[in-house]
Every structure is written in C-alpha cells, then in structure tokens.
Amino acid sequence: KPLPGALAMLEPEHTRIYLCDEEGWLAAFDLEDRLRPEAAALVEDLRARGIFVHLVSGDDPQVVAALARRLGIPAFAGGVTPEGKLDYLRRRQRGGRRVVMIGDGLNDAPVLAQADASIAMGGGAAAAQHHADVVVMRNSLADVRRVFETAQRAMRLVRQDLAWALVYNAAALP
Fold it and tell me: DSSP letters along 147-158, please?
C-alpha cells in the first residue's frame, strides 16, 4: 500500500528506499549521493592535463547522470555491472586508448587489474587495493592529483636522462 506522497519527485542525486513489513510501507528514506569535496577539482585537473574523463558506475543511471553533469563529465554510464565496466574499458583499449582506472569497490577489482594503470582508494575494498597499481592511503582525491603530478614529473626525468645518455653516447663513444 503506497504511502501518500511517497512517489513525490526526487532530486536526481537522491535515491529513495522503503522500509516495509507484512502490512505495508512503514517509512521512506531519501538518500543523497554526495560528491567528495575535491571531485570537481580533480576532474578539472585531469582535463587540464588532456585526460578525457569517463564516469562508469553501478549506481542508478539517473544519479550517475546528475553527478556527471555537475562535474562536467560528458561520458558516463550508470547501472553498469562489473562485467560491463570491464567491457567498457576493453572497448576503449581496443580503440587505442590508454586507460587509467580509479576505483574503491569490490566490483572494481577486475577493471583495476585490466587497466593500463589503476588507482585504488585507501578506504576502499581490499580486493580493489590488491588489484591496483597505486593505493592512495589517505582516501583523498587530492592525493590522486598528486599521483598524476608525480607520474608526469617521473616521465619528464626519464626523458631528460635518455636525452643526456644519447648525447653522451653520441659524443663519447666515437
């Protein structure tokens, strides 16, 4: 038996759940999926680095769409199973893309293992951490930004070292 007004429109970021017994509904709860405070800054930082961001989640498609719009992420999919996430990632890889996966759930483990590089959150599931290349221990998206900064700095140093080795070998060996 529906409660009066129980089907009222929700904000897209909300999920409604119901508590029932044998006689009917007892209560309705509206849950809000909140963004981490640093999520928008991370997305903007990745975009500035030339990284195209996708949001793929097992959460309700309407909730995922609303969150993607708030973050300015044009490519998103909700209601995706772990197998669906893996297929999504593999399609990008077959298209020649290098994929970095960020995840924290048990269902993210297969995708973290398949990604070209993967980052798990320290507060996430142990299976996700086990399959990731990097674990951000403080569970902060700001630390994910530092992972990308460190990786770029390391690649710059590797390229400089290769250039110096090439110059040295070209001058010293003959």
Answer: HHHHHHHHHHHH
pTM of the predicted protein model: 0.76
Residue 14, strand partner residues: 32
For helices 39-48 and 141-172, what crossing angle results, to 10°? 20
Residue 19 β-bridge partners: 27
Q: Is 2 helix (H, G, I), strand (E, B) or coil?
A: coil
Kindly report, residue by residue over 86-113, the tens digit of the pLDDT.
999 999 999 999 999 999 888 899 999 9
Burial 143-165 (b: 16+ CB within 10 A, else e): bbbebbeeeeeeeeeeeeeeeee
Find how far residue 66's CA is from the centre of its chain.
15
Which residues lie below 8 Å from residue 166, measured CB to CB, with a gap of 6+? none
Closest CA relative to residue 90, chosen from 118, 54, 57, 114: 114
